[in-house]
Amino acid sequence: MSPMASKTSGRGHGIGKSRHPANHCFGCGQQNHEGMRLRFRYDEERRRFVGRFRIPARFQGPPGHVHGGIIATILDEAMGKMNKLRSVIALTRHMEVEYLRPVPLSKPIVVEAHEIASDVRKLVHAAEIVSETGEVLARGKATFVIVDAEAMFAKHMKKALGGKR
């Protein structure tokens, strides 16, 4: 089994010892009750993270449709999950979003992300939001920069652990 096929869950941001004690991420944090609480699974055969959602009315932009910022958040979360397959923490450096059709509220949508390219410090991923009829509603492409999470987030981790780090 390849290293990319060994992960099946897209929960949280942590890897190994860098895991946060609680995940309050707006996009995927299960402890953030006001966030989106998105969950993804890894499709090993297709080498993609996949999420199936119905976006609730509280994330409305235009009447009956999802807010553009929420669409960008969904795409960013999906693409960010791809970083887990490399066992790295990487932050979004640049992201492009194409809004092709309005994304309806409360209707089934599927989000899929895959890797386009990688090198020593940079990963490039793409994602699409697709309607229940298979129509592509939005797509994104993003560049992620690999960071040293222990160094970058040390003071925040210490605070989250009650100063015990």
The total count of strands amounts to 6
What share of the residues does DSSP label as strand, in percent?
Answer: 25-35%
**CATH architect. name:** Roll
Identify the CATH homologous superfamily.
Answer: Hotdog Thioesterase
Determine the mean pLDDT. 82
* CATH-defined topology: Thiol Ester Dehydrase, Chain A
What is the C-alpha radius of gyration, as a whole number of Å? 16 Å
State the separation between the terminal residues, measured CA to CA.
35 Å
Q: What form results from the Cα inertia axes?
A: globular
Report the sheet with the most strands, covering strand number, pairing sense and barrel closure. 6 strands, antiparallel
Which CATH top level class fits? Answer: Alpha Beta
Strand order of the largest sheet: 1-2-4-5-6-3
Write the element-wise H/E pattern from the N-terminal end onward: EEHEEEEHH
Structural class by secondary-structure content: alpha+beta
Note the quaternary state here: single chain
Return the domain count. 1
Q: Uncertain runs with pLDDT below 50, 5 residues or more?
A: 1-7
- The percentage helix is 10-25%
- Helix count, per DSSP? 3
Describe the protein's architecture and organization.
- By secondary structure, the chain is α+β, with helices and mostly antiparallel strands.
- The chain has a single domain (20-160), classed as Hotdog Thioesterase (Thiol Ester Dehydrase, Chain A, Roll), CATH 3.10.129.10.
- It is built from three helices and six strands.
- It has helices at 68-81, 149-152, 154-160; strands spanning 41-43, 48-54, 89-99, 108-118, 122-131, 136-147.
- A six-stranded antiparallel sheet has the order 1-2-4-5-6-3, covered by helices on one side.
- A hairpin with a 3-residue loop joins strand 4 (108-118) and strand 5.
- The chain is globular and about 45 Å long.
